[in-house]
Amino acid sequence: NAGVMQNPRHLVRRRGQEARLRCSPMKGHSHVYWYRQLPEEGLKFMVYLQKENIIDESGMPKERFSAEFPKEGPSILRIQQVVRGDSAAYFCASSYIAGEETQYFGPGTRLLVL
Amino acid sequence: LAKTTQPISMDSYEGQEVNITCSHNNIATNDYITWYQQFPSQGPRFIIQGYKTKVTNEVASLFIPADRKSSTLSLPRVSLSDTAVYYCLVGDGDAAGNKLTFGGGTRVLVKP
After folding, report:
1. Are the beta carbons of B36 and B48 closer than 8 angstroms?
2. Does the pLDDT at position B65 exceed 70?
3. Does A97 touch chain B (CB under 8 A)?
4. Residues of B with CB below 8 A from A44's CB?
5. Could you read off the pLDDT of B31-52 as tens digits, one per residue?
């Protein structure tokens, strides 16, 4: 049973470009969470999704950021018109049951904005 | 969500026992205490979870006093590979879409 998969592992973008981060949850998991981690800091919650629904996006900036989890395919975190402050590690986690304390994390995508 | 406070860093030597104490004075009745481990360039990994008293698994032990205002993660006989950041989290496991709140964590450095 493969774990949570994220791609790409590293992504370099210039200011103003778009970044697309993909996350495939563990098999059988229908709850996906996105977190952002700045250097030397803990992870910060961004958004929680179930299939085809955004349940909680309270941690996601209202501009330039969007997330989706379609019926088929991976969850996608999209950042439009990236700025240098978007440089961070973005982690996806999944769980089988909503509210399950144990979330399984992917290896993360490290975004660098030049 | 209850706030947690834990030491910023901790050094140890191979073979020693490492104890990390986390304070969570405002823990709610429904809250569980969970610890995650994060290696450099990797996502956090669940270590252990408890509600009260003591929980032990193959990796660690978790001690929770009766008032539940603190908890101690105990790593027995650490090795170099236990060097990581350890996060203490407190939250309601039954809450739908429970979003995990990570503090700064404790950086544990195991020396040879």
Report:
1. no
2. yes
3. no
4. 102
5. 889 999 999 889 999 999 999 9
